């Protein structure tokens, strides 16, 4: 009697395990796809106001804004009727005054501002305790904070201490005492550094530190818009608030300027890495990004998508009788990654006003 043979089954090779490298690549692909499909225009009129401890605030972009073409920006507007709350954080903050007149106290020092100015909270040991006040009763002041959060996470701790709350928020929550906590100085005290300066590279760092400390004593914490010269360059008409070559301002973490596009005109055409932020101060028009037109109007944000091969873009003013003005900012990577970044910075066509 012959032995019956069982049919042989073919075994499948085990699926290869996903490595950490595979996961990192996939995460980048997901993020790049999300940015490529993300929102370029953020409309201010669609966004709600909220009343919180600091005051009446409208958030345009936050750390949770993942559906946009250039994530990483923290942007909000604040109305100030009497005064804001008072809190302290590390600083390194830029605040553009959109309307009204007032002042800010920064570690006990008063800094006055008005519409068109840029207020700066410096980054100093122990942080900056600050509060904002309106000087025109019945007419609220309005400002916009424009911050880029990724580089701040790398160099400073994310902490906020609240000392006083906004009076409207206090009234709404029936608080009798608006004071939240006593002011405590958290800056570390150290012995004065009287060590001799030698010729080592470490000594060079100490000399640079000393120069920066001295520079900060005289730095401008408010850049007055009405005092800025008009620059005509290949991209168009600029008024620079913060630039790598402007040394006397309280923070250099971003480049900030206001670009004006005359009635019916256009900006230059440029290849840029992307990730740039624009806020429409006035006017209406469109921005063409890699051949796709995006229309905008006042109180809207324009984001250039962040792309490894860069984006070609150009702004157009569609109003034949009025200029358009854009508040523009981007992280100041000039002395870290270089001006070219990953795509190169190239002018492809000059603005009509440029005669260079």
Give a verbal description of the structure:
The chain has 356 residues and is mainly beta. The chain folds into 2 domains: 46-172, Jelly Rolls; 226-349, Jelly Rolls (Sandwich). Helices cover 13% and strands 37% of the residues. It is built from 4 helices and 24 strands. The strands form 4 sheets. A 7-stranded antiparallel beta sheet has the order 1-21-18-23-16-15-14, with no helix packed on it. Strands 2-3-4-11-6-9-13 form a 7-stranded antiparallel beta sheet. It has a 5-stranded antiparallel beta sheet with strand order 8-7-10-5-12, with no helix packed on it. The chain is globular, with a radius of gyration of 25 Å. The chain starts with 19 loop residues before the first helix and ends in a 7-residue tail after the last strand. The mean pLDDT is 90.
Topology, please?
Elements: H1 20-36, E1 41-43, E2 50-52, E3 55-61, E4 73-80, E5 86-89, E6 93-99, E7 101-106, E8 109-114, E9 118-121, E10 128-134, E11 141-148, H2 149-155, E12 161-164, H3 167-172, H4 201-217, E13 222-223, E14 231-233, E15 236-242, E16 254-261, E17 269-272, E18 277-282, E19 284-289, E20 292-297, E21 300-303, E22 311-317, E23 324-331, E24 346-349
Antiparallel strand pairs: 1-21, 2-3, 3-4, 4-11, 5-10, 5-12, 6-9, 6-11, 7-8, 7-10, 9-13, 14-15, 15-16, 16-23, 17-22, 17-24, 18-21, 18-23, 19-20, 19-22
CATH topology of the largest domain: Jelly Rolls
Architecture (CATH level 2) name of the largest domain: Sandwich
* CATH class descriptor name of the largest domain: Mainly Beta
Structural class: mainly beta
Query: Which value, in Å, is the CA radius of gyration?
Result: 25 Å
Residue share in β-strands? 35-45%
Proportion in helices: 10-25%
Instruction: Strand order, main sheet: write it out.
Output: 1-21-18-23-16-15-14
Number of separate helices:
4
């Amino acid at each position: 009697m012959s032995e019956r043979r069982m049919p042989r089954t073919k075994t499948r090779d085990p699926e290869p395990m996903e490595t950490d490298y595979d996961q990192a690549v996939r995460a980048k692909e997901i993020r790049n796809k999300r940015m490529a499909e993300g929102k370029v225009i953020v409309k201010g009129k669609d966004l709600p106001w909220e009343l919180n401890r600091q005051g009446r605030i409208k958030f345009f972009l936050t750390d949770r804004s993942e559906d946009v073409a250039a994530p990483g920006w923290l942007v909000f507007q604040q109305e100030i009727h009497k005064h804001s709350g008072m809190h302290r954080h590390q600083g390194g903050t830029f605040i553009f005054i959109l309307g009204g007149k007032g002042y800010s106290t920064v570690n006990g020092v008063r800094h006055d501002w008005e519409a068109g100015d840029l207020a700066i909270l410096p980054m100093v040991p122990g942080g900056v305790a600050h509060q904002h006040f309106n000087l025109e009763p019945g007419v609220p002041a309005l400002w916009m904070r424009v911050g880029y959060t990724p580089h701040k996470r790398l160099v400073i701790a994310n902490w906020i201490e609240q000392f006083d709350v906004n009076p409207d928020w206090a009234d709404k929550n029936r608080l009798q005492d608006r004071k939240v906590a006593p002011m405590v100085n958290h800056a570390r005290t150290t012995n004065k550094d009287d060590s001799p300066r030698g010729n080592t590279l470490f000594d060079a760092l100490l000399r640079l530190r000393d120069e920066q400390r001295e520079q900060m004593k005289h730095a401008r914490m408010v850049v007055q818009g009405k005092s800025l010269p008009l620059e005509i360059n290949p991209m168009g008409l600029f008024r620079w608030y913060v630039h790598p070559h402007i040394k006397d301002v309280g923070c250099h973490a971003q480049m900030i300027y206001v670009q004006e596009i005359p009635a019916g005109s256009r900006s230059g055409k440029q290849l840029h890495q992307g990730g740039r932020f624009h806020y429409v101060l006035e006017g209406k028009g469109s921005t063409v990004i890699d051949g796709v037109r995006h229309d905008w109007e006042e109180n809207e944000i324009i984001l250039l998508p962040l792309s490894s091969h860069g984006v070609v873009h150009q702004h157009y003013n569609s109003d034949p009788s009025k200029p358009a003005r854009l508040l523009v900012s981007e992280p100041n990577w000039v002395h870290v990654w270089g001006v070219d970044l990953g795509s190169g910075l190239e002018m492809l066509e000059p603005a009509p006003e440029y005669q260079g």
